[in-house]
Amino acid sequence: MTKKPDITKEMTTGEVTEKYPATKEVFSKHFGKSCFDCPAFGTEDINLACMMHNTNVEMFVNELIEAAFKGVESAS
């Protein structure tokens, strides 16, 4: 059984997408596809990104974890 990924709101957007590429869908869903072109993407933490986009951080992190988990499971 695969363990759920440990993603926190303190992690940077770059850390999460690099380690768990499947999470890119969640970023696009909530922040738009252009979020990857933003100069801050990759360096800002999840909490700040959610504040900037008026998105509930707990819900967002849970969606990231689910997407990452599915991505890891399908790669196994």
UniProtKB/TrEMBL annotation:
Residues 7-61 form the DUF1858 domain. It comes from the Bacteria. Pfam families: DUF1858. NCBIfam families: prismane_assoc. This is DUF1858 domain-containing protein. The lineage of its organism: Bacteria, Pseudomonadati, Planctomycetota, Candidatus Brocadiia, Candidatus Brocadiales.
